[in-house]
Amino acid sequence: MDREELFKKVAEIISEKLNVPIEDIDEDSHLIEDLGADSLDAFDLVMVFEDEFGVKIEDEEVEKILTVRNIVDLLSKKLKEE
Fold this sequence. Notes:
It is built from four helices and no strands. Helix 1 packs across helix 2 and helix 1 packs across helix 4 (about 70-80). The two termini are about 15 Å apart. By secondary structure, it is an all-alpha fold. The chain has a single domain (about 5-80), classed as ACP-like (Non-ribosomal Peptide Synthetase Peptidyl Carrier Protein, Chain A).
């Protein structure tokens, strides 16, 4: 899966879970400030990403996820490790 495909899938998941129009999501979107997520939303998103992509995201990695770009970068790295 290339980065663009990964971003599209991540954006779809975020749009669905946070009830945000997909066109409002780009890689620079801040999960809390721009997309209205709270800590519970972030936890839910991480669980969905783990299930969807078959990866494990550690607690210390979750703390570093602030933007959509952070998510795409992390998932891209994890998918290459497998």
